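Hey, can you fold this one?
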Amino acid sequence: MPTASSNFPFILISVSFAVKKLFSLMYSHLSIPLFRRNWKHFQNVLAFLFAIEEINKSSHLLPNLSLGYYLYNALPNNQRTIENTLFLLSGMNQTLPNYNCQAQKQSIAIITGCTPIFSAQIGTLLELYKSPQVTYGPFDPSLSDKSQFSSVYQMAAKESFLVHGIIWLLLQFGWTWVALYVSDDIQGEHFLQDLKTEMIKKGICVDFTEKLPATTGTETLLDFNHMTRIRVSSANVYIIYGDRGSVWNLVWANKFDLILGKVWVMQNLRSAHWRDMFFVVDHMPYLFHGSLLLSNQKKKIPGFEHFLKTLNPYQYPQDILLTELWTDVFHCSLAGSLCMKVGDCPPNSSLEFIPFYLDMMTVFDSNNFIYHAVYMVAQVLHKIFVQKIEIRSPEGEDQTMLLPWQQQPKEYNHQADKYLYAVILFSTQTPESLCSHSCSPGFQKIPQEGRPACCFICVSCTERDISNLTDAEHCFQCAAQEYPNDERTHCLPKPVTYLDFKDALGLSMTCTALWFTVVTAVVLGVFVKHRDTPIVKANNQTLSFILLISLLLCFLCSLLFIGHPNTVTCILQQVTFGLVFTVAVSTVLAKTIIVVLAFKVMKPGRTMRYLLLSGASNSVIPICFLIQLIICGIWLGTSPPFVDTDSHSEPRNLIIMCNKGSLIAFYCVLGYLGLLALGSFTLAFLARNLPDTFNEAKFLTFSMLVFCSVWVTFLPVYQSTKGKFMVAVEVFSILSSSAGLLCCIFAPKCYIILIRPDKNCLKGLKNKGGSRRNRHPKVLLHKSV
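Sure. Predicted structure:
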């Protein structure tokens, strides 16, 4: 079995036709010492030979023809690479440019790997002869440039699926803060651009990016000053994209304890034999503990495993390297060998039983690509020869002769598997790799200035906002009828609230209103019973009855403000309040006018006496009432009160309230009442020093002072309160102002009527009167009533 040297990282295979021989063998420059051989690369040769054997045994593919081949070392040295290429083009060991001493055995296709650099180096020479080059290395966009490499065909597909696989893996583990190590070449630059583009879409950030020096198979060491960035980085996940030499850089970095405890996400596409490194380097399992290796989904090569199990040097005694492999691995020699240092190899020895660190039975990406590359060349050749036969070539033409440029495989597009699987090299507890921990629901992310998007701080939502997602960009407000829960993670429906009869506040005000209503009714009853007494008559009993009835209605109208609002109560509470208070205040005004007129009668003239005796002061009430009625009519006709909801005054309650409709109309009603109260207070204040027997001028003055004080205080307090407390302020003002009028005007009179009846008579009046000057006005006042 012909072989090639197994100590090189790259293999250059030349495929040719041999009609008389199954294989055409050529060894070239095999002088590298045995201890430097990497037998893992020999598996690529075995996959190639297995494909050749299958094709040559096939009765459907290239019948009556056999494929031959040459195997060349492809050492990681530019000079040796070009030299071997010239050997291939010139034939045997000759390096004569543009001359081939084996015209009958020209190579019709070149299978190369493992790196795009090597394919590009020899491609310059191969393009001169249009020799097809099929590379089984990773996909390189530069090799797809047909203007420069028109005869290069890549077995690997574009590595965009690798980017998506890495992104998927990062998202699965929640790793959003990573560092990147990529090879400093065109392929690494394309990978970096594609990866960063997808990372931005998925919200993954990069702590730093480091370029690894491009290698051609040698273990070029990285500048350790660059590796110190790992020490200060907060990222625990590192993505490395490069070739075997790039990994060796990280191995050496372990000497500085820089990568222990980190997770390395590596790909298995740039080098077909990364995994063999994990067994040949001391402490490598500990070094890459918990790392992840991404690779193509493996598909078995049919029959290849059986081929490897049954392969042994006894089948191919002419294969020197296969014999050396057995000697090196099994520490034995073949029967009849001149080597007497070790025992004979058993006839049942197999690659299946070699040490685990070699793992010759596992099929790698490069094995698959080489296997399919051979079949691709064979299928193209088969198609070309079928066409030549159908065209009926001229007589004498050798059907097996085919120049390289005549069999360019146009339309062929090998698609590699677009599925990835992650090999967890060594189990470990899943680490975290985050610049900032996730913001739980109820918080929002605030970016940190000058740092990547993954670096942020978490800020709690305001009392009116929520966020129900992890890492929410913004909080959002609940609906007007809802409020946030304590954790601010979801909205809850607001309970409806209003000044209810069942509330402590509403109940107390209801009881107060009813109590004062009863008191007013009692006072009214007392005045009706004692209507013929001097004190009742002296102050115009009709106006007193009107005032008591209006005050009774004022106390009752406060009940309209308590309870669940509806359209009827909203209209009635404002209109009733305005009208009954107008009657009450205008009655006080009428009383004040009568007092003033009674004492003005003493002066000469008939006008004052006429006004007093004619009862003109009683017209004040209907006139004032009519004006207020017009204002209320305009209010109801333009913008009447209505039921409304207040969702802002109390964050966790939905307040049902009566909207005033037109605030201008509302304040016009209050302003008119204030004007009447101010007029009454002014007149009463001017009459405060008149003789006080049965004279209520002082009481009227004090009552108006209380009334004005209440409603002046009401305005700022009403504006500063919200919700049901605003209603409570208005109810309190109604009750307190009404109670002020009741107590200040009628309490002294009830005291005299009930406690001191001796003063409620004309005799008492005369005994107390004294001088004529003091008696005359009181008598006139009594008579005026």
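The mean pLDDT is 75. Let me know if you want another pass with a different chain boundary.
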